[in-house]
Amino acid sequence: MQTKFKTNTPEATIEIAAQLGKNLQAGDVILLDGDLGAGKTTFTKGLAQGLGIKRYIKSPTFTLIREYQEGRLPLYHMDVYRLEETGASDLGLEEYFDGDGVSVIEWSQFIADELPADYLVIHFNKVDQVDNDRNLVLEPRGQRYLALVQTSFGD
Ligand SMILES: Nc1ncnc2c1ncn2[C@@H]1O[C@H](COP(=O)(O)OP(=O)(O)OP(=O)(O)O)[C@@H](O)[C@H]1O
Ligand SMILES: [Mg+2]
Question: Name one GO biological process term (predicted).
Fold first, then answer.
């Protein structure tokens, strides 16, 4: 199953993410893959909004992970771009995946070996380099994420 969206403003991307964010549960893992500037951090702002987090979501490019505790559930926002060469085997990421919060991971393809079996992966595509069109493709892996997509976007 695949669910697709096309957006042409950051606000539209945030709105889709907020709808998903309202239905997140403890232990959920959301992977955000796609080019630089495709909208992964923008999408995370919407997830945070859906979780009731008011604090500004800043890209964790240099810190690797930022934690937000004030929402309905903790949000663990990771950007593992810088782990392309080294991998993540000694970082203990599974403690986040098995924890009480929601893990959101930008550039998850760089830590493919460390990921849990089930997750929702969202692929972001810039339609072309100059305009604001973005294609989002949601691919749930496992029952939990099929249900999450169905609950959030099913009719
Ligand atoms: N439809 C859209 N959806 C999301 N962002 C958009 C859209 N149109 C324009 N933008 C702009 O594109 C940029 C997306 O940047 P963002 O930081 O979210 O990308 P990213 O995928 O996290 O990049 P990086 O890989 O560098 O972390 C922002 O400046 C945002 O305002
Ligand atoms: Mg980003």
Answer: tRNA threonylcarbamoyladenosine modification
Give residue 29's domain range: 3-128+137-153
CB of 39 sitting under 6 A from ligand 1:
yes
Average pLDDT over residues 10-32: 98
Cβ of 46 below 6 Å from ligand 1: no
Based on the structure, what is the number of domains in the chain? 1
> Residue 51 is part of a domain; what is its CATH number?
3.40.50.300
Question: What is the three-state SS of the chain?
Answer: CCEEEEECCHHHHHHHHHHHHCCCCCCCEEEEEECCCCCHHHHHHHHHHHCCCCCCCCCCCCCCEEEECCCCCCEEEEECHHHCCCCCCCCCCHHHHCCCCEEEEECHHHHHHHCCCCEEEEEEEECCCCCCCEEEEEEEECHHHHHHHHHHHCC
